Amino acid sequence: MSINTALLSGVSGLKANSSALASVSDNIQNANTVGYKRVRNDFTAMLIEQSHVSSYNAGGVRATQSAEIADQGSIQASSTSTHLAVSGDGMFVTRLKSDDATASDQYYFTRAGQFSPDEDGFLQNTAGYYLYGWPADESGAPDTVGSTNLGSLEPVQVTGIDGIAEATSNMSISANLDASEAVSTAATTYDLATNPGVSMASGAVTPDFQTTVQIYDSLGGTRTVAMSFLKSPTANEWFAEIHAVPASAMQATGLPDGLLASGTVAFTSDGQLDMANTTLPTSLSIGASDTPVTAPAVGWAASEGLSAQTINFDFAGANTTGGITQYESASELSKSSVDGVAFGVLAQIEVDDDGNVNALFTNGLSRPIYKLPLASFANPSGLITEAGGAYSASIDAGSVILAAANQNGSGLINSYSLEGSTVDLAEEFTNLIVVQRAYSASSKIITTADEMLNELIQLKR
Fold first, then answer.
1. Of 56 and 298, which is predicted with more confidence?
2. Are 156 and 313 contacting, i.e. CB atoms less than 8 angstroms apart?
3. d(CA 357, CA 113)
4. What is its main location (predicted)?
5. Which residues on adjacent β-strands are paired with residue 240?
6. d(CA 445, CA 382)
7. Which residue, among 293, 268, 291, has the nearest Cα to 278 in the 3D structure?
8. What are phi and psi for residue 277, nearest 5 degrees?
9. pLDDT tens string 407-433
10. What DSSP letter does each residue of 311-376 carry, written as one string?
11. Cα distance between residue 453 and residue 322, in whole Å
12. C-alpha distances out from residue 304 to 27, 216, 223, Å
């Protein structure tokens, strides 16, 4: 009977608009929720096939809801370095457990990037989801474009990171040696090849000019290196020694008195360094403390506990800026510089556009500790909506594809940022009015059908 189907159609309208009201309400309530994706209502007519007769049977309506996961929310600034937002299609990979997760614990995907360390230093967002990434090593994260191997990921932990130091590997010096310096008596008999103990390093010979430079060892400690110069009887030539202060820092089985290197420094007639006739080495290798050496090799003393180290010297050359020169002016050091840094502790964590989680140290060094993947799906609308702004995989969504940020169209990761909700309040309040009116209209269908049925029943008194 058509009146009965109209009654049932009105009921379906009440159900459909009630469901739509619930999703609109959620949208409004989450207008300020980080990473929230607006839920869209789709109404579908449940038409029943009609025969060519005068009676029409109502089919009603059905409402379905789907989150508009692919929509991009606005990127908003944050003052927290571990607050992250994605510009693009990718999503963060998370789980509800950190280091205690097992193979049976599910993976979830989210755009809610308000991550901060928990009591154990694992990054967790406000909904309780832990961020996962690839652990970094010296070679960097592997090429993962197109990978589906979620098992290679680990929870991102940003505390308990060891400090870091960097040994000196390059040293430069700018100095002038006085061309008018008189040749000393010691210079006439100076010969390290036959008498290595009579040296400037030992103090047996007084240098005409000496300067010291601070370098860094493999443990971030500072070491003093002295450079001593003695004018040679040969014109435009100086004897030179490089030695450690104190000498006890070096292995006793190496060169005596902490001597690291020796040779001559030659100059052209116009005071420029003559590298072709200079024999002082421009590179110095210092062996590790646990590796005994014999002269002429040198090594750190066993008590120092240091790694091997190579230092390259830059003395410049003719017609270059800086370096060592010989002019008729007082011998003096004008500038020296070394690389390497002293030991530093963790200062803060930052994430770059490529998803590298970098540990920044108080000495200015940085080190990548993780690389964040972004997950994407062929049909993101097919994902299953979970609590806390997260989604889980489904057959409809397709297989998960992992890619590093800024690769394969995965998107960029913005640090100090959060993605805003995609809800438009003006649109939602309009939908609220429409749903309310449609609900009222459906109720009128029911009351009207009820009155008509009542009239039918009253035919028989």
1. 298
2. no
3. 14
4. other
5. 229, 263
6. 35
7. 268
8. -110, 10
9. 877 889 999 999 999 999 999 999 999
10. EEEE---TTSSSSEEEESS--EEEEEEE--EEEE-EEEEEE-TT-EEEEEETTS-EEEEEE-EEEE
11. 106
12. 65, 13, 11
Structure tokens that stand for 408 in this block? 């394969």
Residue 164 CA neighbour count, 13 Å, CB half: 18
> How large is the average pLDDT for residues 251-277?
91
Return all residues near 225 (Cβ < 8 A) that are at least 6 apart.
171, 212, 213, 214, 215, 242, 243, 244, 245, 260
Cβ–Cβ under 8 Å, residues 171 and 215:
yes
Q: What letter represents residue 242's amino acid?
A: I
Please write the tens of the pLDDT for every residue from 195-228. 888 999 999 999 999 999 999 999 999 999 999 9
**Best CA proximity match to 408, nearest among 123, 81, 111, 148:** 148
Contacts of 100 by beta carbon, 8 Å cutoff, 6+ apart: none
Distance CA 84, CA 111 (A): 9
Q: What is the pLDDT of residue 52?
A: 63
Please name the residues in contact with 112: beta carbons below 8 A apart, sequence gap of 6 or more. 33, 34, 35, 36, 125, 126, 127, 129, 388, 389, 390, 419
286: helix, strand or coil: strand
Q: What is the average per-residue pLDDT within 66-71?
A: 87
Q: Give residue 140's pLDDT.
A: 54
- Structure tokens belonging to residue 13: 């309208």
The owner of tokens 């420029």 is: 272
Tokens 């932990």 label which residue?
Answer: 157
pLDDT in tens, 118-129: 999 999 999 999
pLDDT digits (tens, 9 = 90+) for 83-124: 999 999 999 999 999 999 999 999 999 999 999 999 999 999
Question: Which domains are assigned to the chain?
Answer: 2-68+422-457 (no CATH), 81-158+372-419 (no CATH), 164-343 (2.60.98.20)
H helices within 370-424, ranges in order?
none
**Angstrom distance (rounded) from CA 249 to CA 25:** 73
Task: Give the model's confidence band at 139: pLDDT under 50 very low, under 70 low, under 90 confident, else very high.
Answer: low
Judge contact between 357 and 351, C-beta under 8 A: yes
At residue 207, what is the residue type?
A: P
